[in-house]
Amino acid sequence: MAIVATNLKKGQCIKYEGDMGIVLGLEHRTPGKGNALIAATIRSFKNGNKKTIRFSSSEKVEIVETDRQKLEFSYADPSGYNFMDLNTYETIALDADLVGDTKDYMKEGQSVEVLFLEGNAVSIDLPSTVELKVTESSEGIKGDTANNPTKPATLETGITVQVPLFVKPGDILKVQPADGSYVGRA
Question: Which domains does the chain possess?
């Protein structure tokens, strides 16, 4: 199915330049002279690289049919990361390359959205914020409140994030997986 480039939406999967990928962002540009352009930031399914592709406003873009499924992370083992389909209770194993850095924000029972293309998983999307427990954090220095100071804290998945001085081990934090930033306490 093909649509006009001006009708592209973030999250759609398209074919471009002999590759397939997901649209991460769109920008409509209208130069002083000439026709309007659509600049689409696309992540390739083959190699995971991001690229900005320009389409003319009247250009046809081929949409790829995909399937999105909510899965629950069960466990990781040497063969990969195992997820359960909550509708069929079937276990789906995904390899470490596909899971990538999202593993740092996943814990058992965590819901994720997996994008399937032609029956094969091609990307994993986490919620905008995840809740993780602090396992290790140094003590903050009393009175050190100038310039919004932070300290490193290790979370239950093993990732280290910068947090305010009042955070202590055992706290449950909200973290944004997109950039690994602290949002607040849960």
Answer: 2-63 (2.30.30.30), 67-125 (2.40.50.140), 130-185 (2.40.50.140)
